[in-house]
Write a structure and sequence with these properties.
homodimer, 6-stranded parallel beta sheet, 4-stranded parallel beta sheet, 17% strand
């Protein structure tokens, strides 16, 4: 197995691999590709989760999935073969419900039918805010108009967005994500949405609190440059982007890239055991800030994969 | 009839009323409210068009309407009672077709079914750009995904938006306009759309060219603060916002307001005949620049209608 297929954030990352105490994994695009039925597990990902669980590292799963309740979502992951329990998974909806209670807000929901049961106990009469999730087919013109009319009719309109992703990959192709409709409603009502989910620092912090770890002790692995890697770095965590899921080669300015868990996990554990001296004998590159604001530093490299990719010599 | 129901842009506007040579009218929200069937004419608007046509002023109609071909749209206006001909009406679609020809582009269309015949003669095979119009019910999740996939698959994605309105008023309430979906696709693909229609200076200039007039000789009247009044001012024209259509009292920072054509037209012709000395004897206010960037100056006033409204003393 070559060690050149991954690139990590921050100088000295390989050195700090030994001192890491926890890993947070994104789910869709890292462990599985969604699509018809339960979707499909990404090669090597079931074993990667198993290996991480057998290690001394704490493991959590941080997702912007909002098409199902947490229980149904975890049941799907278990059917795909992952050893994951509900308490290890952090999606935006439960965090949103906590915010509603705290601020005495009653939502109008523009979400997927599968997520509705999560809000069963929430007062939705005479709504004074709107929550938009990844509603998929529910993003009809009529439904978006309804959400818009609720917002435009409020004296102080409040819009919560469960994530801000642009798109994600399903087995039959790329699909628009909630962030696109968040932007649509922001523009229609001339307001700024409050994002609940990645990359919100509050959201990441709630996961760190659950782990009882400091940000610098934790590595986040995801397929979304801004929401996973950028969000993690913004909180002081390390971030690695995998090339599975929605990763596209045109995202050439980020170097925090791994080809996927299949190749990353063995290298990762090798780093924890032996440090980086075995990795081609190359020192890590200095960190750089890409146009997306995400810091990156490459460890090894097998050639450019995107027009803007920097390769260390 | 009181003369205090309108407010106009630019100091000295009343003075220059005499020297105006042309008027451009927005259609939806100024002449009629759209909705079931043909919609309904706004009181006084049929007579206003008649009065303007009988005057020595040139008259054109500038619209971001993209739910029908120009012919069908004008036929509807005529059924509503307006004396308007096809050659006087400027919608975005014909302008877009000219741009496609000029740049050798083949569009994927995300538009209203009623607009499709306008593009009958246009090559749409193997599309290398996307055109989004006010597609209304055609703004399904599936259709927006299709447009997104065309764009994200292009090496140099080009998105044209037929207008950039946030919403408009139909007889059964406010409806989301094309700008909202333009913003959605811009965010999804991380690009900037090219707007064809108001407030594009190129679009306004094509109308001025047809009139054979200079910008300072023409007054634009519309119900949209940014696309009508702002767009006109940006071109050097005068702009007046009417309080009909989608006008909302929360747009309190703009003073370029008239209650509607019903009251505006008699005052306008009085100004052209007598100047402003009869209007309560008040001098026009100095121009101000609102937060929207639209210059405004009030002539007379009968009290604040929005929280941010300035009233001249």
């Amino acid at each position: 197995m070559r060690t050149s297929h991954f690139v990590m954030a921050d100088t000295g990352w390989p050195g700090c691999a030994k001192s890491l105490k926890g890993v947070i994994l994104d789910l869709c695009g890292v462990l599985y590709d969604s699509g018809e039925g339960d979707g499909v597990a990404i090669p090597g990902s079931i074993e990667a989760v198993k290996k991480l669980k057998e290690s001394d590292l704490q493991l959590r799963f941080c997702t912007n999935e909002t098409q199902a309740t947490r229980e149904k979502f975890v049941a799907k992951l278990r059917r795909l073969g992952f050893d994951i329990s509900v308490s290890e998974v952090f999606p935006p909806a439960p965090a949103a419900i906590a915010v509603l209670k705290e601020r005495g807000l009653r939502p109008h929901l523009l979400v997927h039918d599968g997520l509705l049961p999560e809000f069963d106990g929430v007062d939705k009469t005479n709504p004074n805010c709107v929550i938009v999730g990844d509603a998929a087919e529910n993003f009809s013109y009529q439904n978006l108009n309804e959400a818009f009319r609720v917002l435009i009719g409020l004296e102080k309109p409040v819009l919560f967005s469960l994530g801000q992703g642009r798109y994600y990959k399903e087995t039959d192709g790329l699909k628009l994500d909630v962030g696109v409709y968040m932007k649509a409603l922001e523009y229609a009502c001339d307001l700024k949405a409050e994002v609940i989910g990645k990359p919100s620092p509050t959201f990441f912090q709630s996961v760190l609190n659950d782990m009882g770890l400091q940000p610098h002790e934790v590595l986040m692995i995801g397929d979304d440059l801004l929401n996973d890697v950028g969000g993690a770095q913004h909180c002081g965590m390390k971030g690695v982007q995998v090339r599975t899921g929605k990763y596209r080669s045109s995202e050439g300015l980020c170097l925090c890239v791994s080809s996927g868990l299949l190749r990353f996990i063995p290298v990762f554990f090798s780093l924890r055991t032996h440090g980086c001296e075995r990795l081609r004998g190359r020192p890590p590159c200095p960190p750089r800030r890409s146009s997306s604001g995400v810091e990156s530093g490459e460890l090894g490299g097998d050639g450019p994969r995107g027009s803007g990719r920097q390769i260390c010599s």
